[in-house]
Amino acid sequence: MTNNNNMQPIFILPEDTKRTTGRDAQRNNIAAAKAVAQTVRTTLGPKGMDKMIVDSMGGVIVTNDGVTILKEMQIEHPAAKMVVEVAKTQEDVVGDGTTTAVVLAGELLKKAEDLLDQDIHPTVLARGYRLAEVEAQNILKRICEHISLQDEDLLNNIAITAMTGKGAEANKEPLAKLIVKAVKGLTEMIDGKLRVNVANIKVEKRVGDGIEESELIEGIVLDKEKVHTEMPVKVENAKIALLDSALEIKNTEIDAKIQITNPDQLNSFLEQEERSLKMMVEKVKLSGANVLFCQKGIDDLAQHFLAKAKVLAVRRVSKSDMEKLAQATGAKIISNWKELSEEDLGYAGLVREEKVANEESIFVEKCLNPKAMTLLVRGGTEHVAEEIKRAVTDALGDLAAALKEGKVVAGAGSTEIELALGLKRYASTLSGKEQLAVQAFAEAMEIIPRTLAENAGLDPIDVLTKLRLEHERNNKWAGINVFTGEVMDAWKSGVIEPLKIKTQALSSAAEVAEMILRIDDVILGGKSEHHQLPPNMHGLM
Q1: Which residues contact 429 (CB under 8 A, 6 or more apart)?
Q2: Annotation says 65 is catalytic
Q3: Considering 20, 394, 398, 503, which one is annotated as catalytic?
Q4: What is the pTM of this model?
Q5: Residue 98 annotated among the catalytic residues of the structure
Q6: Residue of 63, 68, 89, 99 marked active site
Q7: Is the pLDDT of residue 293 over 80?
Q8: Is 462 among the catalytic positions?
């Protein structure tokens, strides 16, 4: 910065601070956001490709899940990080549609850049985008269809749509049936609204066997083994105790010295410890429990007494698993073994230990009215199983979102073309430069069907022309069949998505685009112990 009187530079920032201002700052930020969108764009749709990410430790992830890719890439650029936040929000709120949200944000900024080059002020653009987003949400509310828990075919189609183009695609029909069954079993009506607690559906993966061997356990599967070999492998009509304290002799909080002067004292000291452990096990046995899940440790001697009492015990069960066990079996989690009584026990028809692909697992199944279930997905290798788990998790999120809102739309690019058409009509009713911003927003919507076409090796211009023509003839669910290249009725073809995916992706993408557009000054702090970003900040990693 300079002082006009004597042209003497005045430094108001530390010497090694990097600063980019005006159009340069905007260009840099938009370039970074576009680069993020470009990274995940090829993964969109049934014909989307996968990415292989290798971390610094040599760990490999193969996926086409947008948020997984962006999280694992460890993106450094500040504006790019803001776009990654869009994907994370989409994942947290809906559980699917992360790629759509990021691609939309990138395209909104790309269209805005053209208008910035025509000297349209960023705040005018941001205001126009805000108007367009509000109108888009209204259009979505008008065109969406209703869904209820009884529409089994629709629910199946939502799950199948979520898994199409992912690792689970080959077996999407049987998997969809399991997912729908799990969601229907855990859906409750609260204050006139459907509530699905997806957190109570545990998705466990096991390597070995084919995807078709996946199953729904009406109970919980734990990645654990019994603590003692002499314990029963299988317990029918299990009465289950849940304990979140250790079955061990506690060390005193303060340093204590015990002086022992002869061997008898040592023996009595050890016998006292043994009696205490025996008392703990007796208490468990007295309650009538024949299965014990402990959140903390179980002493070796206590394990021996439990095995003699024919109690199947598991230790160091995570807090979240303890809560799911309580939901599934109806047991209460007890903090002190002394308090354990028969009323606190839960019930399961069968508790068994089974080796699945060299991993011991504890199955708690045949619960009477389980409020928690487990989807056990299998895959031939670690990477396959992991990707199927991600696909199943996405499908669960979609179903929960669809039932919670009770509203769905068709996919295959049909909703976006309908939005683009509606927004173009709305733009013609506006005066002033906002009209150009709304027009740009409408054009940006078409990036989704365009990307679907490109990823399928089709000519995007041909596809978009055909789609626009069908929508002008009031075929609101006309979408692209990426396998034939023809236009299809996406609703009749069963390509169904929850409305929440679209509304959330739209609002997140529009908000991040507005925020990035309003930045005209980027000040990068001086060097810290962490490595510095390059001054031009074009790099993503």
Answers
A1: none
A2: yes
A3: 394
A4: 0.73
A5: yes
A6: 99
A7: yes
A8: no
